[in-house]
Design a protein that fits this description.
The protein is of the alpha+beta class. The protein is 47% helix and 14% strand. It has a three-stranded antiparallel sheet with strand order 1-2-3. A hairpin with a 4-residue loop joins strand 1 and strand 2. The protein starts with 33 loop residues before the first helix and ends in a 6-residue tail after the last helix.
């Protein structure tokens, strides 16, 4: 029996470390070079700093939820995400004020329901406030994502 020699296949890979782009390679020519990636990294760092400043600002705001015609007020505080352990932001009731006359007249069931209503009102207001603040950050993110070849604008 005769043996056929094995064919050796060679391939080449183009490595573009310093921002040079391959020429005439179709889609590969659209890939960002290192300088573009550094600029995007810098933008991402700026975005992270803006987000932290927003979180700090929101954490210092006082948002009040009310119930029972204003006889109950619950102060809600925004709790920024604590990365990596707790990546989700939250809210906590920081203070409760109950009108003393109302407290003397109300049943425990009505008081309990009114407290829940006040907390929910405060959280709804806090969520709306956070959404307002994050709108500007969202616009900045869209600009960066557009620069990274994300979804078309």
């Amino acid at each position: 029996t005769s043996r056929t020699p094995a064919t050796i296949h060679q391939s080449s890979t183009s490595l573009n470390l310093f921002g040079s782009k391959p020429k005439g390679e179709g889609d590969a020519a659209k890939q960002p070079g290192m300088m573009d990636q550094l600029a995007m990294f810098k933008k991402a760092q700026e975005l992270a700093q803006k987000k932290k400043a927003l979180d700090d600002e929101l954490a210092n705001e006082t948002i009040v939820g009310t119930a029972a015609d204003g006889n109950i007020e619950v102060t809600i505080k925004y709790v920024p995400p604590q990365l990596p352990a707790n990546p989700t932001p939250g809210y906590e009731a920081a203070d409760v004020n109950i009108n003393e006359e109302y407290l003397n007249e109300v049943s425990s069931e009505d008081l309990s329901a009114a407290l829940v209503t006040a907390i929910r009102d405060g959280e709804t207001k806090a969520t709306a406030r956070v959404g307002e603040k994050y709108k500007a950050l969202e616009e900045d993110m869209k600009g960066i994502m557009g620069g990274m070849g994300g979804a078309p604008q």
